[in-house]
Design goal:
homodimer; about 140 residues; Arc Repressor Mutant, subunit A; about 5% strand; globular; disordered C terminus; DNA-binding
DNA sequence: GGCTCTGTTCTATATGAGGTGCATCATAGG
DNA sequence: CCTATGATGCACCTCATATAGAACAGAGCC
């Protein structure tokens, strides 16, 4: 679990931590059951306060992606293999995605290009090992 | 140009104004050359300060979507018909989109579902009139 | 030239978010 | 008991958000 953050960027540190972990879950680098670093430890590693790390972890807990216990620390509770999303989550996501896609359209990207972009990004996440036999794998 | 905002929501008002206008550009409700309401006027209409409106407009100006003049006010400068996006824009957009897609994967949405969702949203934007002769238009 | 409408700029203020630091408590395990 | 861990609370600072008032500048119109 290697995390790199941008301390002086426009996006808050705790948000960056949340985003990087979400991406780690998507790529499979952080599967269900895997433990994340302790808040104090990660704080030291990143050179930030452990409260900030805690805030990022707490976001993920609210989203249902993390389970946080006293001694076990933060453990991934949900990933691509965990079934359908929690009810109510999709509304907010769709609204945000709508703005993202509108921005691309307004900037002149063609519909087909946008879709291809999304497919490429997703292909970078899942090496086609989650939904059936992949290239070069036994069936 | 009807704008509705959520004053008590988690997303800043000026950001909402920016987002709604971006979507209006994408849908074609605000084509190139069309004028937006004056900042003071829109401020009154929405019940907010005109400085907040100004901040939203300024964001769009920085993104190259708006041209703002003394007397003409805010005029849409760019939309889906304006050619390829400005260089350098795509990097940030791809990074943000990466996080959005990772979230969907982590929440359990299948790759195919995500793509279909994006296609549906885009279909709601562009009624297939932008890429080639449209229904009822001369070729 | 005046008048008005527009954006621009400046100052000021109030509220909340982001981030850090320190201290303390609670719990689970050796 | 001792230690590592998360949970909680408090104080503090910086900066973003939002509002408000005032004054300035350009462009169009009478």
């Amino acid at each position: 679990m290697l995390l790199s953050i941008e301390p002086d960027g426009p996006v808050p540190i705790y948000q960056q931590i949340r985003d990087r972990i979400v991406e780690a879950i998507a790529t499979g680098d952080a599967p269900v059951g895997s433990g994340l670093p302790a808040t104090r430890q990660l704080g030291v590693d990143l050179g930030i306060n452990f409260h900030t790390v805690n805030k990022g972890y707490d976001l993920l807990r609210q989203e249902g992606l993390l389970r946080i216990g006293r001694k076990a620390g933060a453990v991934v509770q949900r990933d691509a293999t965990s079934g359908p999303p929690r009810p109510g989550w999709e509304e907010g996501w769709t609204a945000r995605m709508r703005t993202m896609l509108a921005e691309a359209i307004a900037q002149g990207l063609a519909s087909e290009e946008i879709i291809v972009h999304c497919q490429d990004i997703i292909a970078g996440f899942v090496p086609a090992t989650h939904y059936g036999p992949a290239v070069g794998e036994a069936s």
